[in-house]
Amino acid sequence: MWRAAADGRREEAEPCLVLGLGCERGISAQVMLDLAESVLAGLGPDAPVRLAAIASLDRRRLEPGLLAVAAQYQVPFLTFHAARLDREAPRLKTPSARVHAIIGCHGVAEGAALAAAGPAGLLIVPKQIRQGATAAIAATDVKSMALQALEDEHWKSESSPSCVDSRIAGLACGGAG
Question: CA-to-CA distance for 164 and 168, rounded, in angstroms?
């Protein structure tokens, strides 16, 4: 990932990661935690793992398994309406007509990761499926996430639902100058 330095030059910035998650209702916290750990570990031992946020569908905002992952990694849990996730359909690597027919978007995990990462976000781990749960990872920088938060009225966080500024303050990743 690149960012603009104070003097206008481009400099490399350590990317922030957004873990997009989808699940069936009532999925166990252990299944979600195991999936999150597995997907993040799959980045490799030398990969910087700076998780900035967990993201999902707004209908899953109270799912214990998703809340457990956010608590485990101590990051904000961001949720989006299905229509907002579907705006990411052109950037999905594994769109699903079945999911679209049921939920109203072509992918929850990938769509949520990309929606939270903002337009500069890149899908670096496509959807992984395990026991009724899905996970995907997008990389971005904190500035892109902050701009997305300000522009997108559907961006929500159960950890601090009252204002965008507190959500941006909760995002922490390297290279966010």
Answer: 6
Q: How many domains does the chain have?
A: 1
* Domain with 99 in it: 16-170
pLDDT band per the 50, 70, 90 thresholds, residue 16: confident
Contact between 53 and 155 under an 8 Å Cβ cutoff? The reply is: no
What's at 61, amino acid-wise? R
Please answer whether residues 127 and 30 qualify as being in contact, where contact means their C-beta atoms are separated by less than 8 angstroms: no
Query: What CATH number is attached to the domain comprising 47?
Result: 3.30.420.180
Q: Please indicate, yes or no, if residue 3 is contained in any of the structural domains.
A: no
pTM: 0.78
Among 111, 100, 103, smallest CA distance to 78 is for 111
CA pair distance 131, 151, nearest whole angstrom: 35
* Count of CB atoms situated within 10 Å of the CB of 9: 8
* Residue 88 is assigned to a structural domain of this protein: yes
The pLDDT tens digits of the residues spanning 111-137 come to 999 999 999 899 999 999 999 999 999
Does any domain span residue 160? yes
Q: Residue type for 64, please? A: P
Residue 37 CB contacts under 8 Å (≥ 6 apart), including other chains: none
